[in-house]
Structure formats: C-alpha cells, structure tokens
User: What shape does this take?
Amino acid sequence: MPIEVDLLDAGVAGLGESPLWDHRSARLWWVDSSAGRLYASGAEGQDQVSWDLGRPIGSIGLATGGLIIALADGFYRFDASTGSITLIVRPGMAPETRLNDGKADRAGRFLAASMRTGDAVGAGALFRLDADGAIEQIESGIGIGNAICFSPAGDALYFADSLDGKLRRYDYDQATGKIGKRRDLADCQAYGGSGADGATVDAEGRIWVALVLAQAVGCYAPDGTLLRSIPVPLPYPSCPAFGGPNLDTLYLTSIANSGHRLIADHPDAGRITAIRGLGAPGIAEGIYL
Assistant: This one.
C-alpha cells in the first residue's frame, strides 16, 4: 500500500502539540500549546470542539474519567463533559521552567518533562506522577524535554532533550516506575540538523520522531537505526500519534508560531498532517489511573 499524506480538515494551531487518539470515544485530541487551547475532533477532523484552559499546555494523556493535562505549572484532570480542570499536584520545578511533553505509561502513571523558558541551561527535569498523586523527579539537566514514549511491552522509556538532539533509551520498571541507566540511541541532528520533538511507537516497536527542522518524521528501530524518513508538507512538524479506527493513521501536529524562533509563512502551517499506509499500526495509549 503506498503512503498517503493529507492535511486533516481541522483548525490551525499556533503551536500544535500532543496529538492523542482516545480509543474509548474514537476522538482525536491535540493542543495549541502557547495559546492554552485544547481541541478534539473525529478521525477526519469533523465535529471539532475546543476549550480555553487559560494557560500554556505542555501535553495531554488519557485518564480514567477523561484526560490528564500537564499545564505549565502542574498536573490536572480534565472533564470534557463540563470543561472543568482539577489540580492533581504541582511538581517542584526550577525557576523559569514549565511542563512540556508527556505520556502515560502502560501501568497507570504519567510522565512529563519540563523545559526552560529563560536562559538557564539544563534547568528542566523529567517527572513521574503515580496514580496516588505522588510525584518524583527521575531525570535532570534538561533543556527542552521531549519525545517521551514507551516500548509496546512498556519495559523501555524513550526520551530526548531537543537541544542536544539525542534520542535516549532507559530501561523502565513497570512495577515501580524506576528508570535504568541512560543509553543514547540516535543523534537526530544528523538528519537535517533537527532535534527530536515529539515521538510515538508502533506495534512493531519502531519509534516515530518528529524532526522539526528537517520537515520530516523519522522512523527508528529500537536499536536507534534510522529505517526511513518521510517528508511532510508542512514546516516544523512537532509531534506524532497513531490513531483512527484501526490505529493505522499517523497524525502529526505542526507549528505556525512557537513564540520564539520558529515562525512559518506557509499558508497551512499549524495544521495536522495525516499519514496512512505505513505498514504497521500503532498501539492504544496508556491510561493514567
């Protein structure tokens, strides 16, 4: 089956991030990060709705009863039926940082990384939120935390600092949420000078990474080998997620204006690209308990 690349019939985001397929409701979620706006639609972009959450959104994940949202200052539950958010906990973050990329693991926890908003080097960290609301910092020295995703078996955590471009792997203990020693799998900057942005995995364990400056999505083997790179029609792709009824569509958000140095003049910048025919479906996202 040939690869098909289309633009989703959905609204434009300034800083599109964190696409998320909810297999429970057959809905696609994503955010305009800097605008603090949360979106949902059908698989083809139909019946779009949105909510203004009033502050920057780092990432979203599935949760019992709705979603978990990493806003700039902390973790919240979101109830789509009312549009209300309820604070779970605020992590102890360094000054001039905010929460950024995040994913639920396969055992009911949620991991999110912080990123610098000022000039402090390595001020960001990686946090693990347990189902009981306990929070632990499990990695430090991060510039812009990104590319969080888990192997299909849940025993490996993938992660990147977009500023150094390295896609990392950690052993992941599903029973405790503890991570092992860091191992660098790939230097994403070797392809088009691009750091790793968002990432996801497919059912075969391959890692799909948004190569934001290369205008492409890269597919990496679990050992870090670059298997293929697929050009996309929009500048600054930011984060991929598998979804659709058969989990065989790769949705890819993009950036029109990051609020910093990434500003696109493409007329469709900020829209979502839908890629089909990749030869392997994704897997359902974990659910924060």
Remarks:
- The mean pLDDT is 94.
- The chain has one domain: 4-288.
- The longest strand covers residues 97-104.
